[in-house]
Amino acid sequence: MTDLIKQWIKEDIRSLSAYHVPDPGDMIKLDAMENPYLWPESMRQEWQSQLAEIPMNRYPDPSASILTSTIEQVMGVPEGMQSILGNGSDELIQIICMALAKPDSVVMAPEPTFVMYQMIARFTNMEYQGIPLDENFQLDMPAMIKAIETYWPSVIFLAYPNNPTGNLFSEQDVRNIIEMAPGLVVVDEAYHAFAGHSFMPMLSEYNNLVVMRTVSKMGLAGLRLGMLSGPSEWINEFDKVRLPYNINVLTQFSAKFALDHDDILKQQTDQICVDRAVLQEALSSFENIIQYPSAANFILFKVKDMNSEAIFEALKQSGILIKRLADTSGPLVNCLRVTVGAAEENQAFIDCLRKILL
Fold first, then answer.
1. Mind listing the domains of the chain with CATH numbers?
2. 269-306 pLDDT tens trace
3. Is-contact 186 159, C-beta < 8 A?
4. Sign of the C-alpha dihedral, residues 144, 111, 287, 341?
């Protein structure tokens, strides 16, 4: 069997590890940047009553036109721009790479960043070039400029805010990259709801810019729905790669229903921003903790002179799951990432952390 696998499975694929998601069991789950809040009971009941009328025996609208129109309105897509939807942002990243995967084409991104940029580049036979961020997790512009001139990338991915660092890059630096990039620039705004800044209004300024978003962090992670917006010339080409019926009927209906109640989703994301400030203040009370600025719904931090693995395991043993970043060198060494949960979850995390550190 081993010889058969070696013969037919690409070496790039054999060298990868599968994207692992741990089973949280009954633990307090603060590892996946999810919205901790449920919908109000009246909203859930209304959704459930309407859900029963969905025609499960029929294929979904192949272009999800009604949902697309709604999400464009809620997300503030500028007039004249076009959008396609994906099964989460991951599918949209895959669509982009598949469409751009000419021989010797290059995907570029600053690092550390969302791991799927590199993984999908390798899945689609593209070369990947990661350019380290500076010591403040900002874009190293001399290095980025040199890399763009050297590798002439087909696409540059910029997570904004960045994951796992949580910070926003300088707007002017991002603009400079868009202006000098020979190919496409994708600004990935998965955490736009918490950031207070967006490149969505700037789509009409550049012919090589597209903006990607997801509803996952807004409380709809279970639906797996992402959106890519930009000039029609790009979107039309990407739509040729999109598989038919990629957004199922339950997702189309449920997302439309939720976005029709956008005021509720906004109240929740506003509350998470408040909860984030409280959690940041609590972390700042520990003299031996270094935390980094966040414009997302998570906080990156490290503990001085203490191994992150020990802290992660101690929290886990106490029923709290956060994210341990596995880097053994570089800027993320010994770092941990905690999602902003509900107030009682955040307090349980802080109380447990205090017992571990004191």
1. 2-40+263-357 (3.90.1150.10), 57-261 (3.40.640.10)
2. 999 999 999 999 999 999 999 999 999 999 999 998 88
3. no
4. positive
